Fold:
Amino acid sequence: MKRTTIIILACMLTTMAAMAQTGLNINHLFDGRYKKAAGATEIIVTGSQAHEIGLTIYHSISVTEKAQAEIIENLVVKDGAKAIDKEVEYRNGQLYYGFYTLPKYKRSNRYIFFLNQNLARKSPKNVVTLIYMEGEAGAERIKKLIRK
Amino acid sequence: MNKNHHINNQAELERLIERYFDGDTSVQEEQMLREALADCPWSSEVIDEARFTMGYFAAHSHEKARTAGKNHRRQFIGIAASIAIVIAAGGYALWHQQQSTGVCIAYVNGMVVQDDDKVMTLIANDLSMMDNAADAMTDQLSSLGAALELDNE
Structure:
């Protein structure tokens, strides 16, 4: 009985950590599809390592497949529409860079970063990156974090 | 005594009571006596004493049943509380473990990277790319500002 309860709780907590971006459109991208995909990188950091940078969750994906860029961009733009603050740059009608501050979720700040390096002027790369961050860190601290 | 026999008068009932206290009654007779004491209108010292004694036993049995019920409730509450404590403690332990150790993992080209330093380096690379893009945006705004100032001179 105890063992079953603990196993159920463990599954619930792991799912909760992995699905923390619940309620967002980008959540569909974090369903594990990029974990085994060639040319893709997915990073998941929670706990003490995330805490060191003022976060509770760091979840990112980088993909090289061009077809994925549009899918990711569309979902980011949908979530970005609900942002309370945003910095975005479009190039040739496509989202190049986006930094969105989302409404708080359970007292945690939430941020989405998006970068399509295909649209970079200097040495463009075939890489689209999406980062979801959640934690106590305010927007200024996050900006400082990326300027380290 | 006949199974279907009924006590028809007070004297018969009192004789049965005496036999009951002497321990000479069968199970059927005891049952018949209980029913008669519960239903009959007769009253005498012997009958009232028997009513009191047998009624006392009945009440005592009822009290015992109530106590047993309370004990069962207490046991149930105790078990439920123990389960709740186990769930809460297990949940807290797992939450605490996850908070303190957490997850630090990356999947690169289908390969799993579990080395914390390597994962943190990947994060630094991600953030550096974002920084460059943000810088490009700031540079662009600065250039626009400079161009406008130049144009206004």
